[in-house]
């Protein structure tokens, strides 16, 4: 009977609680424009109850406290307002006054806690959704180029690699990109996937870029910086948003070569989010980009000073197939033995080697330049309680883009997915996610072209002759006819190339499809990367329990399941599993009446590929001598276990040429370096030219091991009169066991060095290894932002990165000019109702030397001054906007690295609906 009464009381108590609850409704508007103010935080003073305004500025909040209550309305860009609510009979009309956001920005990534950007203990740059909405760039990855301390390499539309502190290359494995708590790296290749699977344009809430070492907080491979991206919370950002951009690129420019005609550019994005009730919300996003890609057209000869009309051994940077070369002297000697009367022609030629390359194919017409990128995301959030939230999300990306490394790679129909489950509270989170990768039908430009040449006509064959014997016969015939040596070589090439498969023909396409769709392990050039990453982590903030200081601790477990079917890794029999374990703790304490903040972090990491664990640390001090003036000093000891690529890669990058990891197990078991020693490729080339074996230099190698850096930074940031914000800094870093790359060769099956005379008898490798000496990097930077009132804002930044004591035998990827200058000037709203806005940016870089990792190319990148601009008009009643703009508005083509494409202008018009 007592139990029955108890159950009867439950609904009665529930009814009483609802009777006591008060439902407050209202609308929030901008005082200047009278527009609805979305995503405004509304919470009850001295309570955890709260909500957000929707995309039309409306809100509805259920409060359990008796009236009157005080509501606090706050949003970045508006003055905070308190409103006392006496009654719920009439909806509230709340008017917020716009306010300067300069110096008010908050960040999370610098210390894993919310703090003002000004008071951050390390250098950090930031982009908000408001920054993105007023930018003239087409996407946020382009915007990042203008941040202080940031370098980028643009391989193609859709593939931008980011780094800081000078180490700049495509696919930087020492830069970490984190999206909504998930490491955005490709599981097998270990470098961030850029925009391929990151947030869609409409779903970016905040982007934070930490310059330099950050592994004490974010783990291995954070040596060159970390970018933390946060998507929009569907509880906060609601409604339907649409962004449609139509443009044109490849507009002809005088003095710039572009083989592609003027072409359309499309970029469409849509986002829908809704709060079903106070506990449940979801969002869906998608974005599709399509354009004719920029084309790499560098014709620089990698084998010497000549060009394809003057050097028989020509191998152009972006001409593929020319890596196959041979000394034709054996064929000349054979001709002389068969006909001694040719001695006057042949004997002068035999005085030195006569290297000749096969004819290469230019990139345009060979690689498909139709860039396509599609990504989609869905997220469901459920509030178990006001302080505990469950999150489920899935992200998928696919498309066709081009990436630069040891050659150019066309990623065709690649597929990447990330899937997450998370429980998140105010003080802790538990998160698990997985990343799946499918390399699709990726075309490796260099070796595929070499195989096409061999499939059409073998280089030499004792039974049928071959391309080189035909070339030699035609050369002698031309010389006998009185032609000059140069003209004879041109005639010989034309003769040997008779009937050669031409770009775009059915025969060429058939050969290309057959070779590029046959796995490397079966004699083709297709790699089958189906690697996966599994990650679980947890963090707890003990600050509420430990009153005298802030304490944050966390653990992380990760599994890489490397599965390439022996085409990228030595995983012929089964996938290779690599595990990582880590734990970290961060301590912070405020002193001197909260003017001084001291913090330190420690992290323990273990990787199963290496016997010894690593312990790293960070210590920092931030002092505020005067309000809004902060002096910061930090020391960071960071490390990087060699990535899976740096340790275990075994990838074909040309005919008899491989990109290789530095594990001695791989080098000895696969390449037999312990039996047939490697020599530096530079000394092999010298031997080929001189015939003197004494110039050959052995390459000394050891098992690759982790690299580390000790970095010191001193900075000063201040906000003056709420109108001027500046930041200056200097840093110095010392690197040990620095991982770079070297080009070497050996002769499997023989230790006879004369085998190096014949290209077909030796194998080349681009190998990751640790440099012996200490390497130092240093630099400085300054930035100034000025609020000019009436929504005008001007920014300028300057930074410089330098390296010394570098190992000249290594390719170190320190590809940066001596300085950068970036400028911005814009207005986020002018006119009677602030319906007009504009934005302009300038990025200037002087010329600099650039070396492509993998030995693809090296050379000087010309200076560039890139101007982007846009002007926008808001249709306030339609909640829409129209933007007219251009990137690289002067259309003076520029490049971010050798072997990468030259980038021209994109002129565009954009329609935006319901965008903040």
Automatic annotation (TrEMBL):
The keyword Transmembrane applies. GO terms for biological process: siderophore transmembrane transport. It is a multi-pass membrane protein. Transmembrane segments: none annotated. Keywords: Cell outer membrane, Membrane, Receptor, Signal, TonB box, Transmembrane, Transmembrane beta strand, Transport. GO terms for cellular component: cell outer membrane. It holds the Pfam family Plug. Residues 117-226 form the TonB-dependent receptor plug domain. Residues 401-889 form the TonB-dependent receptor-like beta-barrel domain. Coiled coil: none annotated. It is found in: Cell outer membrane. SUPFAM superfamilies: Carboxypeptidase regulatory domain-like, Porins. Belongs to the TonB-dependent receptor family. This is TonB-dependent receptor. It comes from Pedobacter ginsengisoli.
């Amino acid at each position: 009977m007592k139990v029955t009464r108890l159950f009867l009381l439950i609904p009665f108590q529930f009814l009483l609680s609802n009777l006591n609850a008060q439902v407050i409704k209202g609308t929030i508007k901008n005082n200047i424009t009278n527009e609805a103010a979305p995503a405004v935080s509304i919470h009850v003073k001295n309570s955890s109850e709260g909500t957000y305004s929707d995309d039309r500025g409306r809100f509805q909040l259920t409060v359990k406290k008796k009236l009157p209550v005080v509501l606090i309305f706050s949003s970045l860009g508006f003055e905070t307002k308190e409103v006392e609510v006496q009654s719920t009979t009439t909806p509230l009309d709340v008017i917020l006054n716009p306010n300067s956001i300069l110096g008010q920005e908050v960040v999370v990534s610098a210390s894993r806690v919310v703090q003002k950007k000004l008071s951050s203990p390390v250098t950090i740059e930031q982009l908000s959704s408001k920054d993105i909405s007023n930018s003239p760039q087409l996407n946020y990855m382009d915007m990042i180029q203008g941040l202080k301390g940031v370098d980028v390499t643009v391989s193609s539309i859709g593939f931008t690699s980011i780094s800081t502190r000078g180490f700049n290359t495509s696919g930087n494995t020492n830069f970490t990109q984190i999206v909504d708590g998930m490491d955005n790296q490709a599981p097998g290749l270990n470098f961030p996937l850029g925009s391929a699977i990151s947030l869609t344009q409409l779903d970016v809430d905040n982007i934070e870029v930490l310059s330099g070492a950050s592994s004490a907080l974010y783990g291995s491979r954070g040596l060159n910086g970390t970018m933390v991206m946060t998507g929009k919370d569907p509880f906060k950002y609601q409604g339907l948003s649409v962004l449609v951009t139509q443009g044109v690129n490849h507009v002809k420019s005088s003095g710039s070569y572009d083989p592609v005609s003027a072409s359309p550019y499309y970029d469409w994005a849509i986002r829908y989010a809704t709060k079903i009730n106070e506990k449940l919300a979801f969002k869906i996003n998608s974005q599709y980009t399509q354009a004719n890609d920029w084309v790499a057209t560098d014709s620089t000869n990698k084998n010497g000073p000549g060009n394809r009309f003057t050097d028989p051994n020509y191998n152009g940077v972006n001409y593929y197939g020319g890596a196959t070369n041979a000394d034709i002297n054996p064929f000349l000697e054979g001709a002389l033995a068969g006909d001694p009367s040719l001695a006057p022609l042949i004997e002068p030629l035999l005085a030195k080697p006569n290297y000749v390359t096969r004819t290469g194919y230019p990139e345009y017409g060979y690689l498909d330049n139709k860039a396509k990128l599609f990504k989609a995301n869905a997220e469901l959030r459920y509030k178990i309680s006001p302080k505990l939230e469950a999150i489920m999300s899935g992200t998928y990306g696919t498309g066709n883009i081009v990436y630069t490394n040891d050659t150019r790679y066309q990623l065709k129909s690649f597929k990447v997915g990330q899937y997450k489950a998370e429980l998140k509270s105010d003080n802790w989170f538990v998160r698990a996610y997985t990343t799946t990768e499918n390399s699709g039908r990726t075309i490796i430009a260099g070796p595929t072209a070499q195989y096409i040449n061999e499939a059409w006509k073998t280089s030499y064959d004792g039974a049928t002759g071959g391309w080189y014997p035909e070339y030699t016969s035609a050369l002698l015939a031309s010389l006998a006819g009185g032609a000059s040596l140069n003209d004879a070589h041109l005639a010989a090439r034309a003769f040997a190339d008779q009937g050669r498969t031409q770009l775009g023909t059915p025969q060429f396409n058939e050969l290309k499809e057959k070779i590029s769709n046959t796995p490397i392990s079966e004699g083709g050039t297709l790699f089958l990367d189906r690697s996966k990453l599994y990650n679980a982590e947890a963090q707890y903030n003990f600050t509420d329990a430990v009153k005298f200081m802030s304490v944050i601790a966390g653990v992380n477990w990760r599994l890489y399941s490397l599965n390439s079917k022996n085409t990228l890794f030595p995983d012929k029999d089964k996938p290779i599993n690599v595990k990582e374990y880590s734990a970290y703790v961060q301590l912070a304490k405020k002193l001197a009446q909260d003017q001084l903040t001291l913090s330190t972090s420690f992290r323990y990491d273990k990787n199963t590929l290496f016997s010894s664990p690593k312990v790293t640390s960070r210590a920092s001090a931030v002092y505020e001598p005067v309000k809004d003036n902060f002096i910061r000093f930090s020391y960071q000891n960071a490390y990087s276990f060699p990535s899976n690529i740096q340790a275990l890669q075994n990838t074909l990058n040309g005919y008899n040429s491989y990109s290789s990891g530095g594990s001695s197990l791989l080098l000895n078991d696969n390449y037999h370096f312990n039996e047939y020693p490697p020599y530096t490729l530079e000394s092999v080339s010298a031997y080929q030219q001189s015939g003197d074996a004494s110039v050959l230099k052995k390459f000394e190698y050891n098992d690759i091991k982790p690299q580390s850096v000790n970095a010191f930074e001193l900075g000063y940031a201040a906000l003056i009169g709420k109108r001027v914000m500046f930041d200056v800094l200097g840093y110095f870093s010392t690197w040990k066991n620095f991982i770079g790359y070297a080009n070497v060769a050996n002769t499997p099956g023989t230790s006879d060095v004369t085998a190096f005379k014949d290209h077909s008898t030796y194998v080349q490798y681009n190998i990751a290894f640790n440099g012996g000496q200490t390497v130092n990097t240093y630099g400085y930077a300054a930035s100034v932002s000025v609020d000019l009132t009436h929504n005008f804002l001007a920014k300028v930044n300057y930074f410089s990165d330098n390296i010394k004591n570098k190992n000249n035998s290594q390719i170190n990827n320190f590809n940066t000019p001596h300085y950068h200058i970036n400028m911005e000037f814009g207005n986020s709203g002018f006119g009677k109702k602030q319906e007009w806005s504009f934005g302009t940016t300038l990025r200037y870089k002087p010329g600099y030397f650039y070396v492509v990792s993998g030995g693809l190319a090296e050379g000087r990148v010309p200076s560039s001054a890139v101007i982007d601009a846009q002007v926008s008009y808001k249709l306030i009643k339609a909640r829409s906007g129209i933007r007219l703009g251009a990137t690289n508005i002067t259309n003076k083509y520029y490049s971010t690295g050798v072997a990468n494409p030259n980038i021209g202008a994109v002129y565009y018009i954009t329609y935006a609906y319901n965008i903040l």
